[in-house]
Every structure is written in structure tokens, then in C-alpha cells.
Design a protein that fits this description.
Layout (H helix, E strand, L loop, with lengths): L16 H20 E4 L4 E6 L2 E6 L2 E4 L6 E6 L5 E5 L3 E3 L5 E2 L5 H4 E3 L5 E12 L2 H6 L4 H18 L3 H5 L3 H19 L3 E12 L4 H72 L1 H17 L28
Antiparallel strand pairs: 1-4, 2-3, 2-5, 6-10, 7-8, 9-10, 10-11
Helix pairs in contact: 4-6, 7-8
């Protein structure tokens, strides 16, 4: 090929064959480089296919692959908690979330075990744990998740009365739904794990029935409030009563120790007096009599002692003004 001017008519600069070849080479090199590298985010894993067949799974970072579609990468968010909503939609999430005003009765309207209609809104959260299974085992994984979740919640609500769904069985429904969903989705090999099932809002039928259920809910809230107040009072009074009981026990133990010690002292004193009495009965008898008189009349200065025949005051009377007998 001659290096003649190949510039098309009206082109702003001259074009020669060498320039065309160079441009093609540059494009090939750029295409090779651009199709040979890919980036995997920290929250992702990449599934690599070689000529359409599974090859490997790569982690976060800048990765290399064969160019021009020989190897293809599919990034899967394995570290992200994803959410599916039933019966409502969030238009804008944030501190104050904005929800859609549209209704989704095909998702939320259910029949309870006692043949009442109830509107149940709920959410599920899940995480992809096997990116290969997520991509290839099920054709529409999100549609499958929603269908299974809706079927299970409908069945659990249908097994209970409307009072149970609104009240005591609410938490049990959430736990059973999570367990059942994980079991079924594992059998399908979907490669996900349901982390949370949360019943968001349960509304009874409108009209007088709804008013009655609102009264029931108010009564339940009042009952819980009274229970909490009772527990608070219990936690306040019981430690106080235990402290008072402990104080009484300690006082009783101190009183018992005092009485025992006093009794032991009285026994020791009596034993000592008995020994003295055996050695000298008359002197001991007189001393005991005088001590008894001192105990009885020592603190009463207005008492006069007379003899047995009431003929005269005893000589001891003169000693009272001197501090006793």
C-alpha cells in the first residue's frame, strides 16, 4: 500500500495509512487492557466464567482476567444486607423515612385461623453467602425469595387467631418464619441466609372490629405498664425488706449473745457464791441478805427500815444518808 494521502474530502487533517494502522493498534491495546482488569468492591465477591463455564471466585481488589470476553466477571454483593418489603414500599430512607401511599393488598391481606381478615406488613433481610449458587441455581432469585416468604407468613398467620397474630404470637411468627424460610431456601440451593423477619404493622379490619381491637391493644399496653410498675415497686421494696430482715436478724443475734453472756456470768457468780457458802454459810448468808437490801432500797432514799417486831428502826437506817448500806 502506498503512503498516499487518504484524507476524506472535508477532513480537518491529512490521513495516511500508517496513521490508520497505528490507531487500530492503539484501540486493540486499549481494549485488551480495559477488558483484562476489573475491580471488586470490599462488599463483593466476583464469580469468574471461562467461556461460559464457572472457573473461580475472587475477592476484593484489582483483579486480572483474560480479555475480549474469554473470561467474564459477575460481582455479587456478599457483605451487604438486602431487604425485601411486603405490603408497603419505602420511597426514601433516612432519619425520617418516606413511605409510598400505595396499597399492596395482594401481599398483605391474609386470613387468620379464626376466619378474620388482617392486613400484615413485614420485611425480611438476607445476605448472599454463596455467590455461585445465587447466580446459577435459580433463574429469578429475588422473585423466588418473595414468593416463598409470602407463602410462609400466610401459612403462619393462617394457623393462629387474630388475637394471637396481633399480640402474644407475634414474636413466635417472626422466629418460625425465619427458620422455615432458611430451610426451604437451602433446599433450593439459593445461596442466601435470612437474617431477620420483622412484622412491621398488623391492622385488623376497618370499622367496629378495628375499634374493638384497638381497645384490646390499649388494654394490653395498660397491662404491660402495670406489670412494669409492679416490677419496679417489687425491685424497690424487696431489697428494703431484705435489709430490714437482715437488721432484725443481727439485732436478735446480738440480743441472744448478750443474754447468753449474762447468763454465763450469772452462772459463774452463782458458782462462786456457792463455793463461799459451803466454806462459811453464816457469813455468806448475811452478805447475800445485805446485798439484797442494797439492791432493793439503795436507790430509794425515802424508805425506812424497822425491826421484825415493829418496835424500833433498824440501826441501818442511819447509814442511808451516807450513801446506802
Amino acid at each position: 500500500m502506498s503512503d498516499r494521502d487518504q484524507t476524506p474530502k472535508g477532513f480537518p487533517f491529512p490521513v495516511r495509512p500508517k496513521m490508520i494502522i497505528l490507531a487500530i493498534v492503539v484501540l486493540i491495546i486499549a481494549g485488551t487492557v480495559m477488558s483484562s482488569f476489573y475491580v471488586v468492591d470490599q462488599t463483593e465477591q466476583a464469580v469468574i466464567l471461562f467461556l461460559g463455564n464457572f472457573k473461580t471466585i475472587t475477592g476484593p481488589g484489582l483483579q486480572f482476567k483474560l480479555p475480549f470476553g474469554i473470561e467474564r466477571n459477575y460481582n455479587v454483593p456478599t457483605q451487604v444486607i438486602q431487604t425485601e418489603q411486603f405490603g408497603f414500599r419505602t420511597e426514601r430512607a433516612g432519619v425520617t423515612s418516606v413511605y409510598s401511599k400505595a396499597d399492596f393488598p395482594e401481599e398483605s391481606i391474609m386470613l387468620t385461623g379464626d376466619l378474620n381478615i388482617v392486613d400484615v406488613e413485614w420485611t425480611i433481610q438476607y445476605r448472599i453467602v454463596d455467590p455461585r449458587a445465587w447466580l446459577f441455581n435459580v433463574q429469578e432469585p429475588k422473585r423466588t425469595i418473595r414468593d416463598i416468604s409470602q407463602s410462609i407468613v400466610n401459612r403462619l398467620v393462617g394457623d393462629r387467631t387474630i388475637f394471637d397474630v396481633i399480640g402474644s404470637e407475634r414474636t413466635n411468627i417472626e422466629i418460625r418464619a425465619q427458620e422455615t424460610m432458611n430451610n426451604i431456601l437451602d433446599s433450593y440451593g439459593l445461596g442466601i441466609n435470612i437474617t431477620t423477619v420483622k412484622l412491621r404493622n398488623i391492622v385488623p379490619p376497618a370499622g367496629s372490629v378495628q375499634d374493638a381491637f384497638e381497645d384490646v391493644n390499649k388494654a394490653i399496653q395498660d397491662m404491660e405498664r402495670l406489670i412494669n410498675e409492679g416490677r419496679e415497686q417489687y425491685n424497690k421494696e424487696i431489697p428494703k425488706a431484705k435489709g430490714q430482715a437482715q437488721q432484725l436478724v443481727q439485732e436478735a443475734q446480738g440480743y441472744a449473745a448478750e443474754k447468753v453472756n449474762r447468763a454465763q456470768g450469772d452462772v459463774a457468780r452463782f458458782t462462786s457464791v456457792l463455793q463461799e457458802y459451803r466454806r462459811n454459810p453464816d457469813v455468806t448468808r448475811s452478805r447475800l441478805y445485805i446485798e439484797m437490801i442494797e439492791d432493793v432500797f439503795g436507790n430509794d432514799p425515802g424508805s425506812d427500815l424497822i425491826d421484825r417486831n415493829l418496835e424500833n428502826f433498824l440501826p441501818l437506817k442511819n447509814l442511808q444518808g451516807q450513801g446506802g448500806l
